[in-house]
Amino acid sequence: MGSSSSKKSAYSRTVYGDTTTSNPYAYSKTDNNGTISGFQDNTALQSVYNFVNNNINSLLNEYLQPNLNSVTNKAKMRAFADSLSSQSRTNLENNIINPLSQRNMIRSSQAQDLYRNLEDKNLSSLTSYANELLANSQSDTAKSISNLLSYYMLGANYLSDMQNHSLRASSGNATKYSASSGEDTSYNISDEILPVVLAAVIAGMAA
């Protein structure tokens, strides 16, 4: 009389198809090891993404501590000063000095006084503009940060959509494998009972 026992197990796995999704702005590559996504080189999305990552700390410092030495304020001051100097000098010469000079109604010393007065007036205008710039700097910087982050998130969301599209495409191309494996183990109950029977026979003979 005998009996047998066996155990078996099954397994399955999915291999995703290699998929590359791209357009002029971004790309996404998916295989069985995962997904890699990024912006195409020399695109607007990549430029904004890199600029924000590289400059957000300085922009936040500029927001918290407005000063005239920031890149933005220095550029604004330079543009204002250049425009003010050029326009005011041109107006002075065209409207006052040249007409009077043509009529021999102005001496060189008087012209020099007019230029000095113009410089003093321009300096006063620059001081007023600097104070106004500092007063509005925090608000202007906050708007710049908000705009940059909006463009930044636009690129990030665009990249996420590309990645999801690549994952869906790769999942659609996936191949599923399944197999069974295991080890059969068989034995007879008589193999366990025989030693017991022999022991009883020997004990009876001895008696």
Notable features of this structure?
207 residues; 65% helix; alpha+beta
Summarize the topology:
Elements: E1 3-15, E2 19-22, E3 26-31, E4 34-39, H1 44-64, H2 71-102, H3 108-172, E5 175-187, H4 190-206
Antiparallel strand pairs: 1-5, 2-3, 3-4
Structure summarized in a few sentences:
The protein has about 210 residues and is of the alpha+beta class. It has helices at about 45-65, 70-100, 110-170, 190-205, and strands at about 5-15, 20, 25-30, 35-40, 175-185.
Briefly note the structural class of the backbone.
alpha+beta
Number of strands: 5
Largest sheet: 3 strands, antiparallel
Q: Reading side by side through the largest sheet, how are the strands ordered?
A: 2-3-4
Give the strand content. Answer: 15-25%
Q: Residue share in helices?
A: 55-70%
Order of helices and strands: EEEEHHHEH
Please give the radius of gyration in angstroms.
43 Å
* Distance, first to last CA: 29 Å
- Uncertain residue ranges: 1-6, 183-192
The rough form would be described as: rod-shaped
Number of helices: 4
Task: Provide the residue-averaged pLDDT.
Answer: 80
Describe this structure in words.
- The protein has 207 residues and is α+β, with helices and mostly antiparallel strands.
- The chain is 65% helix and 20% strand.
- The protein contains 4 helices and 5 strands, in the order E-E-E-E-H-H-H-E-H.
- The strands form 2 sheets. A 3-stranded antiparallel sheet has the order 2-3-4, with helices on one face. The chain has a two-stranded antiparallel ribbon with strand order 1-5.
- The longest helix has 65 residues.
- The two termini are 29 Å apart.
- The N terminus is likely disordered.
